[in-house]
Write a structure and sequence with these properties.
CATH class of the largest domain: Alpha Beta
Number of domains: 3
Number of helices: 17
CATH topology of the largest domain: D-Maltodextrin-Binding Protein, domain 2
Radius of gyration: 24 Å
Order of helices and strands: HHEHEHEHHHEHEHHHEHEHEHHEHEH
CATH architecture of the largest domain: 3-Layer(aba) Sandwich
Distance between the termini: 50 Å
Structural class: alpha/beta
Shape: globular
Number of strands: 10
């Protein structure tokens, strides 16, 4: 919302309050002002698209990688605002009749709920999004299918693990089984505070075949005793005299714990590990075997202030070339498969001009020999019950 529009809304609220005191005279005036404020809103945003995202280095990578180039190509302004996730803010805007966002960076389940509730626009995917440079339809060029008709893939990031390169006299853990092998690799591990992704890697380390994209892991978790089996594997690690667990909650903690020597291995997000290793020279190394791939999507707000330009901008920001551009600034994989070909053909791709990014891409062929796609449906259906069992397990350690 522009500054003028902001003060206009405040003024309108004051007039509505006066209306209650003065009766019918103000009723017509307040309706007139409401109409005028709508005109101001539409006029002030006619050539600007507003994107709500998560802020920090992530939004910077979006803005520099494809936001600014798209704005220049289309001759429009693209403004980026920070938000804290979920649908509550856009719902409030809709209910107030004052929508100020055009595009939102969202989790998978938010695209489903927002689609069902009519908040987001449904796409005709191969019509609304361009094909890959070789002609592959957009629907076949994304790493995984969209979770709803209102979603278009943005990036994929990894829940993987890293280790302290000083810890094992030159030996290197290479598999998810090694993360749990305290005899060969003694020392404490840092793991996420909640059950999410911990159960999946525990079953994989316990010998469960992942299947393509981790489907067999979730099938096992659905079976009777599957969750207990996974939690027992975690409990065994945390209570092992040669191991032990430190629970992390903030993304900055895993590399910090490794550098400080408080743990020898840590699960975490690949972007954080990359920044520590490449950006700060930290003595850590990532392991991709057994990684969990998670996702971010864009959704187009129905009835947003500049829906037509927003749709054009979204189609361009998610084309092959533009999505590849984000990987110049952050170690998250563009959702399009064809974007990887651009990165590979133009190495070193990172903004420093010397770091090759294909080895850092979670979806690179070398990094996806054993992986699982985090299943939002499983966690939506079972997260509360599992969370209670998880906290009880932790309390008993």
């Amino acid at each position: 919302m522009t500054l003028n529009n902001h003060f206009g809304v405040i003024y309108l609220y004051k007039l509505i309050y006066i209306k209650r005191l003065n009766g019918g005279i103000m009723r017509k005036l307040s309706k007139l002002l409401l109409a005028l404020s709508f005109v101001v809103s539409v006029t002030s945003s006619a050539f600007a698209v507003t994107v709500a995202s998560w802020g920090g280095a992530y939004t910077d990578s979006q803005k520099q990688g494809y936001g600014d180039p798209t704005a220049a190509a289309l001759g429009i302004d693209i403004n980026w605002v920070d938000y804290s996730g979920g649908l509550s803010e856009i719902k409030a805007q809709k209910e107030a009749g004052a929508i100020t966002w055009d595009i939102i960076d969202v989790f998978a389940f938010d695209t489903i709920n927002g689609c069902d509730e009519g908040i987001f626009v449904k796409f005709d995917f191969d019509k609304d999004f361009p094909a890959a440079p070789d002609g592959t339809p957009a629907s076949k060029d994304f790493f995984a299918p969209m979770p709803s008709e209102c979603a278009v893939g943005n990036i994929l990031y990894s829940w993987n693990y890293a280790f302290d390169t000083r810890a094992f006299d030159g030996k290197e853990p290479k598999t998810i089984q090694d993360f749990f092998n305290t005899k060969k690799f003694p020392g404490k591990r840092a793991i996420y505070k909640s059950a999410l992704t911990n159960l999946e890697i525990a079953l994989a380390a316990d010998g469960v075949n992942m299947g393509k994209g981790g489907g067999l892991l979730y099938r096992k978790l659905e079976e009777e005793g599957g969750v207990d089996r996974a939690m027992n594997k975690i409990k065994e690690l945390c209570t092992d005299p040669n191991g032990g667990c430190v629970f992390w909650s903030a993304g900055a903690q895993p590399p910090e714990l490794l550098v400080a020597g408080e743990v020898v291995m840590a699960t975490g997000w690949n972007g954080r590990f990359f920044n520590a290793e490449v950006g700060e020279g930290a003595p850590i190394k990532q392991v991709w075997h057994g990684q969990g791939l998670d996702y971010e999507y864009f959704a187009l707000v129905k009835g947003g202030p500049d829906e037509a330009n927003a749709k054009k901008a979204l189609a361009m920001m998610t084309n092959t070339e533009m999505l590849a551009g984000s990987a110049k600034y952050i170690a998250y994989a563009p959702y399009r498969l064809s974007s990887l070909e651009i990165i590979k053909a133009n190495e070193p791709w990172y903004k420093d001009g010397k770091t090759e990014m294909m080895p850092q891409m979670p979806t690179a062929p070398a990094n996806t020999k054993k992986y699982f796609l985090v299943d939002p449906f499983y966690w939506a259906d079972n997260g509360t019950e599992i969370g209670e069992k998880w906290e009880a397990m932790k309390a008993g350690l």
